[in-house]
Design goal:
Number of helices: 11
Structural class: alpha+beta
Pfam family, one: Acyl-CoA_dh_N
Protein name: Acyl-CoA dehydrogenase family protein
Number of strands: 9
CATH class of the largest domain: Mainly Alpha
Strand content: 5-15%
Keywords: Coiled coil, Oxidoreductase
Number of domains: 3
Largest sheet: 9 strands, mixed
Shape: globular
InterPro entries: Acyl-CoA_DH_C (IPR013107), Acyl-CoA_Oxase/DH_mid-dom_sf (IPR046373), AcylCo_DH-like_C (IPR036250), AcylCoA_DH/ox_N (IPR013786), AcylCoA_DH/ox_N_sf (IPR037069), AcylCoA_DH/oxidase_NM_dom_sf (IPR009100)
CATH architecture of the largest domain: Up-down Bundle
Length: about 425
C-alpha cells in the first residue's frame, strides 16, 4: 500500500456532493442550539451520503479525500453548524488511525466506514485521576473477549456513534490500549451532560462502561496509534474555528445590508454605505479569509505527515510529524485570537440590536471561544517558543490529570476531546 491510493478526488466534486446537505444543516443550526436538539438526523444523513468515508481510498469504496480536502470540507460543515464537525472529530481520527494501520482489520474497518458506521471518542477520565494514570480497564475473559469498565467525560460524538474509540489499560499486563467498544450493547451508557456555554450540541458528556464486551481484535496497542494524532485533533478544532468565522462574517454582512435605521452621528444616509461600518465588516471578512488560509497551511503539514507513514524512513517520518505538531500549534495560537476577535467584533457593526436573542449572533462568539479553549493555546505558544529559541522537539502525546500537589478528590482541569 502507498499513500498515492488516497488523494484522488477533485475538491469541487466532493463538495458538490455534500453542499445540499450542508445547506439543510445550516437552516436549522440556530434553532437546534436554542432548543438544545442534538443533530442525530443531520449526522445520520451525512453518514448515509458517505461523509464518514471521505478519507477511505476510492479503491476501498470511499471518496479518496486528501487531508487538506477533508479539513476544507469540515470548515464548510462548520460554517453550517460548528457543532457537527466537532462531534465527528473522534470519528475522523479513528479513520485516520485505521488508514495507516496494517493487517486484516484495516480492510474490515474501512468497509465499516464505507457502510456509514461512525466512531465516537472516549478518552478523558472522570475525577481525581493522577496525570498519566488510566482508570478505565479492559480485562481478558476465558472466551477470548475482554470486558471494559470505567467512566469517561468529554466523550464528544459518542452519543451518535456505532463504535467508541476508548483509551484504557489492560489488567493482565498493564499495556495502554485503544478499546473499540460497540456502542449498541448493554453496559454502555451516554450522558449529554456537557455544560459549556458554547458547542452545546456536540453530544459531549459522560460515557460509562459496565462489563461491556470488547472483541479481542478491537483491543489495539496504543503505541501503534498514528503519530500525528494530536496535530490532527487540533486541526479539527481549527476547522471549527474557520467555519465559525466564515458564518459570522456572512451574517454580519447580511445584517448590515438590510438594516434601514442609521445613527445621527454616523457617516452616511444608509447603514450599508457608512464607511466605518464597512470597515468593521471588512475586517471580520478578512479574518475569515485568514482563518481558512491558516487551516490550509496546517492541513498541508498533516498530509505530509500522513504520507511519511509509508516512506520506510523513520527519521523523515519523525521530522514530518514534529513539523505537523508545530504547524498545528502555531495555527492554534493565531486562530484563537483571530476567531474570538472576529466573532466579538461583529457586534461593533450593529450596536445593541445585534445582541438580540432572536438573532442568536452571540452563538458564534460562544462557540469560537469554547472551541478555542480546548487544549489551552498558552501551552502551545510556549512549546512553539521553546522550539524557536532552543530547538526543543514538541510533545506529540500528552495527558491531563491531578498534579502531585493536588489533594485527593480535587477535580483537575481538562480539555474536551
Amino acid at each position: 500500500m502507498t499513500s498515492a491510493t488516497i488523494h484522488q478526488a477533485d475538491y469541487e466534486t466532493l463538495a458538490a456532493r455534500f453542499r445540499p446537505i450542508f445547506e439543510r444543516i445550516a437552516e436549522g443550526a440556530s434553532a437546534r442550539e436554542k432548543d438544545h436538539r442534538l443533530p442525530y438526523a443531520e449526522i445520520k444523513e451525512l453518514a448515509a451520503a458517505g461523509f464518514g468515508a471521505l478519507r477511505v481510498p476510492v479503491a476501498d469504496g470511499g471518496l479518496g479525500a486528501s487531508l487538506p480536502q477533508l479539513f476544507r470540507l469540515l470548515a464548510e460543515l462548520a460554517a453550517a453548524d460548528s457543532n457537527i464537525p466537532q462531534a465527528l472529530r473522534g470519528h475522523f481520527a479513528f479513520v485516520e488511525d485505521r488508514l495507516v494501520s496494517t493487517g486484516a482489520q484495516r480492510a474490515v474497518w474501512l468497509k465499516r466506514f464505507v457502510d456509514g458506521e461512525i466512531a465516537g471518542n472516549s478518552w478523558t477520565e472522570v475525577g481525581a485521576v493522577k496525570i498519566g494514570d488510566v482508570v478505565t480497564k479492559v480485562e481478558p475473559q476465558p472466551d477470548g473477549t475482554f470486558r471494559i469498565n470505567g467512566t469517561k467525560y468529554y466523550s464528544t460524538g459518542s452519543i451518535f456513534a456505532d463504535w467508541i474509540d476508548t483509551f484504557a489499560q489492560r489488567t493482565d499486563d498493564g499495556t495502554k490500549v485503544i478499546a473499540v467498544v460497540d456502542a449498541h450493547q448493554p453496559g454502555v451508557t451516554h450522558g449529554d451532560d456537557w455544560d459549556g456555554f458554547g458547542q452545546q450540541t456536540t453530544g459531549s458528556g459522560t460515557s460509562t462502561f459496565t462489563d461491556a464486551v470488547v472483541e479481542a481484535e478491537h483491543v489495539i496497542d496504543f503505541e501503534t496509534r498514528f503519530k500525528y494524532q494530536t496535530a490532527f485533533y487540533q486541526a479539527v478544532l481549527l476547522a471549527v474555528l474557520a467555519g465559525t468565522v466564515r458564518t459570522a462574517s456572512r451574517e454580519i454582512a447580511a445584517e448590515v445590508a438590510r438594516r434601514t435605521r442609521i445613527f445621527s452621528h454616523g457617516n452616511a444616509d444608509s447603514f450599508a454605505a457608512d464607511p466605518q461600518i464597512l470597515q468593521v465588516v471588512g475586517e471580520v471578512t478578512a479574518r475569515a479569509y485568514a482563518a481558512e488560509a491558516v487551516l490550509e497551511r496546517a492541513a498541508g503539514a498533516l498530509q505530509r505527515a500522513y504520507e511519511a507513514a509509508f516512506l520506510d524512513d523513520l527519521a523523515e517520518e519523525e521530522r514530518r510529524n514534529d513539523d505537523a505538531e508545530l504547524e498545528s500549534a502555531q495555527a492554534q495560537v493565531v486562530l484563537t485570537e483571530l476567531a474570538t476577535r472576529a466573532t466579538s467584533d461583529i457586534f461593533d457593526a450593529l450596536g445593541a440590536s445585534g445582541t438580540s436573542t432572536a438573532k442568536n449572533l452571540d452563538r458564534h462568539w460562544r462557540n469560537a471561544r469554547t472551541a478555542a479553549s480546548h487544549n489551552p493555546w498558552v501551552f502551545k505558544a510556549r512549546i512553539v517558543g521553546d522550539h524557536a529559541v532552543n530547538g526543543a522537539v514538541p510533545p506529540r502525546v500528552w495527558a491531563i490529570g491531578t498534579g502531585p500537589g493536588q489533594q485527593a478528590g480535587q477535580q483537575p482541569g481538562a480539555s474536551k476531546a
